[in-house]
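User: Hey, quick favor. My workstation is busy. Could you predict this chain's structure for me?
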Amino acid sequence: MKQIADEDVLRAMESGPVTIEEVAQKLSTSWAKAQAMLFGLVGQGKVTYERKGRMNIFRRKQAGLKVVPPVSTHVKPKSLSQVTRELEKYWLDVSAQDVVETERGHY
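Assistant: No problem, here it is.
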């Protein structure tokens, strides 16, 4: 039986997300072997998967790509202690009973 390397499986995923069946077809191997290889790559952190109904959809992890949301120039960062001091005034006179009654009032 032909040996299949992790790189072969990753190459089969270059075009986008794949199912176990698609990898098995592309690599001409059994479904069980493809499943074992894909979950092995998940364990190594090279691939992620999500369950869609009865199917597992596998995606390559993109190393080094991080999405950084744009930050407005007028936003000034505050320390945790500053934020805590600002929020404390809203919680000084609130009891657990007040919170429960307010929440029950929503339903």
